[in-house]
Amino acid sequence: MNIQSAISREIFVPRDEKLLVAIEVRRRMKRKGLSFLNAGRKRDYLTYLCLSVTNSRPAQVLITKVKKYRGTRPLAKRSQWSVEQLRQVNGINPDKDTPEFDLVFDRTTDQWVASSAAEKCMFVQVLYHACQNYWEAKLAQANPASPADQKTPGAPENKKSPGAPSQTSFVNCQQKLMGDACSVNMVIYRCKIFLNRMKNSMTANQGQPQREAAVKASRSRSSPSPPAVRKMGNVMRRASQVLSERGERLMRADDKTSHLLHGAKQFAEAAQKVSYSDLHETELHIVMNNQAVKQM
């Protein structure tokens, strides 16, 4: 099911409305607002501009803004205006197909950019003919006239009566968009839209494996695989064991050095005592010999 069918089934069918066209849009210029309110707001939705008519009589032409949130959240209707509130449609450039256009209502002006120039052209063309049919029916109800006096498509407009409501004006729009809604242009626009959506879908599908590969690569760089973890743990344990063994050898060498130093000190003290006693005995022998010589 494409997005237009989903929007029609979830939003317009329960309201007894018929969806004529729906295009994806984004704002060309951001609205002024409080910066601290928009700072943490995440753009996790797509915006669609929809044109619908009511099944009840007299039929009403409505412009509805619908948002589609990413994930499992459903579609949601945000704003809705009637054609009587639409004062002007500005096509921006009357010489070539462009995605930009403006909608001027009674109290607000929305500046949009469609996802493609073809979608914008199709929306403007369908909106133009819906407005023409609506205002013709409105004028026919207000001023009943014979079929010969009624306006035919492509014919010059008659001057409005003083009490007639203000109709929607289309400015800076290409002349081909004001032609027949069933013309070749409409078929071309629909083909372009279909091809553009297919291209975007294929690009998204091709980019998904690349994103998954990049995520896997980043995960492999940030967190090593289990074999690498085991190998690193073995190396760390081996290094710790070598360090502990080397520390034990150093401690034993230090103990042996201390023991040898203590033995050397004891040997030196004993040798010194022995040398002192030998010297004392020698001195006694000399004294005794001297006394013996004197007595003789």
TrEMBL record:
PROSITE patterns the UniProt entry points to: V_SNARE
Gene3D superfamilies found in the cross-reference section: 1.20.5.110, 2.30.29.90
Keywords: Coiled coil
Pfam family, one: Sec3-PIP2_bind
Entry's Gene Ontology BP terms: exocytosis; Golgi to plasma membrane transport
Stretches the record annotates as Disordered: 144-167, 202-230
Residue span(s) of domain V-SNARE coiled-coil homology: 221-281
Presence of keyword Coiled coil: yes
Stored SUPFAM superfamilies: SNARE fusion complex
Highest taxon in the source lineage: Eukaryota
Coiled coil regions, renumbered to chain: none
GO MF annotation: an example: phosphatidylinositol-4,5-bisphosphate binding
Residue stretches of biased makeup (Low complexity): 215-230
UniProt keyword annotation of Coiled coil present: yes
Assigned GO CC terms: exocyst; plasma membrane
Protein name, entry field: Syntaxin-binding protein 6-like
Taxonomic source organism: Sinocyclocheilus grahami (Dianchi golden-line fish)
Classification of source organism: Eukaryota, Metazoa, Chordata, Craniata, Vertebrata
